[in-house]
Amino acid sequence: MGMMRQYELVDRVRSYNPNTDEDLLNRAYVYAMRAHGTQKRASGDPFFAHPLEVAAILTDLKLDDATIVAAVLHDTVEDTAATLEEIETMFGPDIRRLVDGLTKIKKLDLVSKKAAQGENFRKLLLAIADDIRVLLVKLADRLHNMRTLHFVPPEKRLRIAEETIEIYAPLAGRMGMQELREELEELSFRHIKPEAHATVTKRLEEVTAREGKVIGEIEEDLKGKLAASGIQAEVFGRRKRPYSIWKKMERKSVSFEQLSDIFGFRVIVEKPEDCYRVLGIVHMTWPMVPGRYKDYISTPKQNDYRSIHTTVVGPGHSRVELQIRTDNMDRIAEFGIAAHAHYKDGRAGEPMGLADESRAYQWLRRTVDLLAEGDSPEEFLEHTKLELFHDQVFCFTPKGRLIALPRGATPIDFAYAVHTDVGNSAVGAKINGRIAPLLTELQNGDEVEITRADGQAPPAAWESLVVTGKARAAIRRATRAAVRRQYAGLGRQILERAFSRAERAFSDDKLKAALKRLARNTVDDVLAAVGRGEMYSGDVVKAVYPDLEPEKRGSADGKPGAAADGKGWFELRKGENLKFKLPGEEPDTAIPIRGLGGDLPVRFAPHGGAVPGDRIVGILTPGEGVTIYPIQSPALAAFDNEPDRWLDVRWDLDDKAPQRFPARIALKSINEPGSLAQITTTIAEHDGNIDSVSMNRPNQDFTDVTIDLTVWDLKHLSAIISELREKRVISRVERVVG
Ligand code: MN
Fold first, then answer.
1. I want to staple 612 with a disulfide (CB 3.0 to 4.6 A). Which of 13, 433, 568, 713 is the partner?
2. Active site residue 78
3. Do residues 303 and 238 share a domain?
């Protein structure tokens, strides 16, 4: 292919722009040709062929004169004796600005020098946000360089290909230029993973040979049906490109054989309403694949993309993807921001006024604004990392604020990115107007509305489900605060009871007055310390009422030995005034126990805990909270001398949310085949959940078996035990309490 002639360039531009300034184009052509002189490219071609090819690519996008001229001139200032001043004198300030922008970003290394990446990327974004035409020329420049990359020395090739696939291809995609993005990816893929590229290409050809006929049938069938319905439509068959197939194989970890919809059709119609008519015909002709229908006409993507997507099962079980769109939508889908660009031609000297008509350009501006906000260099670098494009999604608040998040982010991450308070109070989300689970993975362009409720605390489990550091840290803080609130709540209940037994008034103000004596800073600190068992309620009562006589207190509940150690006389003590209760008999002063995971920091005794129906007692353990024991537990003997640690507790079960409780039983079983199976079957038949079984064989006749199981309550446990007692193979069975 020979170098494009001067008149050819003018003809190309005139074909879509009758008002083109031919003189301007001619002057640029001659100026650049002279400036580059005898320079050669790596291919051995005259260098000047390169800017001309770049200009030619841009004429395909039907761009304005200034963009075409900037393309012709784009390498002159950097590589020749030409100066910006000269360019301004000859071509005006608009073109000077474009060439200046292109010169500034020409040498930016965006992948290999780690330290400079952030800053270089910032420069690139600022230059292109200043005038989007800088990016259009840059992308065309890169496309031509990629098309001729095989002439470049191998060591340079990889860097250029990586930069292309990591920065320029995603940028083109973000600007809605899909055709350009796909070609850039394809050319890069070839150089970065030559073997993968060759393999995928070969398989693609095999599949085409095998299934091409079916595809042809579908195409004919579709065309016939559309014509019969009087819909004017063009139908194009298309095959996925090797890179998009490879990406899918990588992302979904599937083999080529498992991939479906390698073939697709694009149906181009005149009017938006025709898109839906075509969709109706398609769905009535072939079964649709559930979950693949997407309406980007009613909900366009952030880069302005509009189309209907659906996948159907054609003859021979081939899956076929269809994209249905109008001519205008198709142009924007292919050319993106460039499709808007030429409308502005003729307003010489004015930067392109794209902001009001292109959402892609708005996105770019907002991204640049966002980047400019990062105050520390580290933070900035963090934001501007390559992941900005590759691994980020850009979502919006209902008011249009851009929220940039890493890929995989959920509405929870989104909520925390908006504000910590929003995250902490989030209870639900709407994505693009539809209610969606809080764990949905967000997609680019999603508009996310967070539903909030007061008095919420984020579940601790969210911490492992979010992907942003900000959300994770905030959830951790909120979880810590919630645990502290639980301890403080327990502490308040303990203190209220302690003060009431001492017949003294309790209030936050009284507690506040005693803070110094208690060596705590806040009322909450005291409450939490009591709840955690780090401070005894008796000490708090004494601190608030220092004049209280121990003797008097001792006789107040009339129990001997209580005041011997001078503290805790007003607490309930084992075997004395502890009111062991059955459900329904609890006094008001007992602390309600709901079970695990309730509002109180409560745990059950290990090795055989209490189950509802058991009389229970709570033991405060410093730093841990309350451990619940059945009253018959031998472990309680260890706390006989620490009456302060005993708490009056009662069951408070939620009938609507029944819960299982752990219990332990010990059996002696006759050694014979199937005896263990009989035991476990009996338990299972009676709705017991076995957690673990351990065995010990003291002699050849008997085996000792210990079983940890979960049951609903004491009645349930007793029923299981009596069933087991009926079994001939079991010589003894009893409950174990820890
Ligand atoms: Mn160039």
1. 713
2. yes
3. yes
Residues paired with 703 in a beta bridge: 669
pLDDT band at 360 (very low <50, low <70, confident <90, very high): low
Point out the least confidently predicted range of 147-156, 192-201, 338-347, 500-509. 338-347
Structure confidence by residue, pLDDT tens digits, 393-431:
778 888 877 787 877 899 999 999 999 899 999 999 999
Q: Give the Cα separation of 547 and 535 in Å (integer).
A: 20
For residue 11, what pLDDT is reported?
94
DSSP-assigned letters across all residues of 175-215: TT-HHHHHHHHHHHHHHHSHHHHHHHHHHHHHHHHHHHHHH
What pLDDT is attached to residue 702? 82
- Same domain for 162 and 61: yes
In the set 11, 79, 130, 723, the catalytic residue is 79
Q: Is residue 470 part of a domain?
A: no
608 & 631 share domain? yes
Residue 37 makes CB contacts below 8 A (sequence gap 6+) with: 80
Give the tokens for residue 621: 């353990």
Domain that holds residue 254: 203-339
Q: pLDDT tens for residues 277-336?
A: 999 999 998 888 887 888 888 877 766 788 999 998 887 777 888 999 999 888 888 877
pLDDT given at position 268: 95
Buried b (16+ CB within 10 A) or exposed e, 390-410: eebbbbbbeeeebbbbeeebb
What's the CA gap between 539 and 567, in Å, rounded?
A: 7
- pLDDT number for residue 326: 94
Q: What is the DSSP letter of 734?
A: E
pLDDT at 378 over 60: no
Identify the CATH number of the domain in which residue 124 sits.
Answer: 1.10.3210.10
Whether residues 82 and 126 fall in one domain: yes
For residue 104, the CA-to-ligand 1 centroid distance in Å is: 12
Last residue of a domain, one of 651, 669, 694: 651
**What is d(CA 676, CA 683) in angstroms, rounded to the nearest whole number?**
11
Angstrom distance (rounded) from CA 102 to CA 55? 14
For residue 570, name the pLDDT band (cuts at 50, 70, 90). very low
Measured in Å, residue 116 CA sits from the centre of ligand 1 at 22
- Please tell me the distance between residue 385's alpha carbon and the centre of ligand 1 in angstroms: 25
Round to whole Å and give the CA distance between 154 and 270: 47
- On the 0-12 / 13-18 / 19+ scale of CB atoms within 10 A, 723 is middle
Tell me what the mean pLDDT of segment 624-637 comes to. 82
586 has catalytic annotation: no
By CB atoms closer than 10 A (0-12, 13-18, 19+), residue 692 is exposed
Ligand 1 centroid – CA 189 distance (Å): 21
**CA distances, 560 to each of 354, 550, 578, 636, 643 (Å):** 89, 13, 15, 20, 13
- The CB density around residue 547, as the number of other CB atoms within 10 Å, is 5
Task: Check residues 465 and 46 and name the one with the higher pLDDT.
Answer: 46
Q: Where are the alpha helices (DSSP H) in 612-709?
A: 675-685
344 inside domain: no
Q: Are residues 124 and 62 in the same domain?
A: yes
Distance (Å) from CA 132 to ligand 1 centroid: 17
CB atoms within 10 A of CB 472: 17
Q: Would the CA dihedral through 348, 349, 351, 353 be positive or negative? A: negative
